[in-house]
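Z., the sequence and structure:
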Amino acid sequence: MNRAHARVEIVKSWMDPVMVLQIVSPAFSDGGRIPRNHSCDGADRSPPLSWSGLPEGCLSLVLLCDDPDAPAGTWHHWAAYDIPAGETGLDEDFPKSESVGPIRQALNDFRRIGYSGPCPPRGHGPHHYRFRLLALSVEHLGLPARPNCRNVERAAVPHRIAEAMLVGIYER
């Protein structure tokens, strides 16, 4: 009788849909061109982002945006953290302030709080902007006031239980 019960559990487990963390934007597809409106050549507005498939045990989220193609090494454009697990996305033109409700934002490599869009050197070729969503096993990172994006990433990685990425391309 126990074997039959075990077999049912295996079948049930096999049939359960696998939740996969995903991040998307209606502004551009994965591997697609980021619209000018979301860059320094336009209004420099953050793109709308949504996500799904949060894993079990996710208590908060971190959103990171960086450019690994920058001439001086990876350039950090945005870090939003302490995003409650119940959130399903961030609206376009998310406010550029340290706190937006429970969500906190870090100082980016432009020395500004919040999102600063693609702004690669002219003629440097296409740059890949990685929007990374980290699902964390903690509610809050407990960072001091005005951390930079690197501080947020370093604090988040040990608590990461899942990660999703959306890559946009921009060239000047």
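The chain is about 15% helix and 30% strand. Residues 19-170 form a domain with the Phosphatidylethanolamine-binding Protein fold (CATH 3.90.280.10).

Let me know what you think.
H.
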